[in-house]
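Hi there,

I know you've been waiting on this one. I reran it after we fixed the sequence typo, so this is the corrected version. Both the input and the resulting structure follow.
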Amino acid sequence: MVPLSRLSITPLVRLFRPRRLSTADDLAAFLRGEAMQIAQTSLLGYLRGRMGTGWPRHFSDPVFAAEIETATRRGFLICLSDLTIFSAASLGGQGADAARLLYAQAVGQAVGQAAGQDEDREAGMAFAERLADTDWQAAPAEALNPSLGSLIDVAPVSQAFRTSDRAAFANALELRWSDIRKRFDRQADLVALRQALGVGGG
């Protein structure tokens, strides 16, 4: 007979156990979700803090709401670029083909969520240029650095605010990236992902 305590705990363990990432679809969905979350929480949190108690009034303004939507989409693409390079590099070997596939899938999954064709096209071109210049040996350690300096630039605030707040914003973003790196390490089945994406371990 199975002890009652074991019967009650096992479903909870299954419920809270992180989902393993073992296919290209799994990883692309992870990249999309994490990139969207970090862009939203970083930018919206920053704007609320900068505006103080008056943020609901600003957020309800249709013009400013549209600016926030555009900024979030651009922020998502910036974070997706970093996270895609990081994950592909973490698999080992030359990750350009895997990164290209994962980025395209993640952007495709995000269509309809604050979609912007111009932003997507420009970001795609920038990502292709980045792939050509990526040092895949150094990429796992350096891939998440670009957004630390560039994500705040899409926030709909004055340049003076961006300049004065840049360091604090980057420090907060770095902590969020650290949490995502840990989640990737816990959830990624590297052997299965290498096989699925045709990447050789290094």
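Quick highlight: The chain is about 75% helix and 0% strand.

Best,
R. S.
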